[in-house]
Give the backbone structure.
Amino acid sequence: MMGKYWVFGSRATRPSGINRPVGALKQYAQRGFTLLELVVVSVLVGVLFVSAMTYYFELMQDARKASLAMLASRFAAATSGAHLQWTIAGRPQRIDLDGFQLRMNRYGWPEGEVSAAARGLNVCRQLWESLLQNPAVIPDTFPEGKGGVSYWVDAPKQEVCRYRLITKRAEEYYFEYSLINGKVVVGGQL
């Protein structure tokens, strides 16, 4: 390449698309975008933004479901570990689980802490705090409209504990633990 010309073989040519004098190019380059071009680009960016936000919210919902399913899996593993310890220990009424005296039912599934049960605390909340390592904090009152993501544990109904994940958009996901047979079931959205 020599100067402003391309050299092909034995003759020099201008690059394609540059058939105007140099002054005409400067005038065209300084003109800017038309209003129609700006509107079209703005509409396209808006459409992309809306579709990305829809995808983001669906992804967040899926992440919450996966998070709760993982938590339910950890809870099921902990109850199974307690059941195994109960079986190995000769089926006692209580087992020691990391410093907690855990009361077991006649089928060998955790029912709650011995010391906390004497004080009348929620059995399901006791299990949450004693079975899980580093469990999420559960507030003392139901979290209504406080924003963020929080967990709530219902008192047992018909020998079933329900553990709920509540989002700031008032979406609730849950899993249940049966105090009778130790079964952990991930539910859907409430």
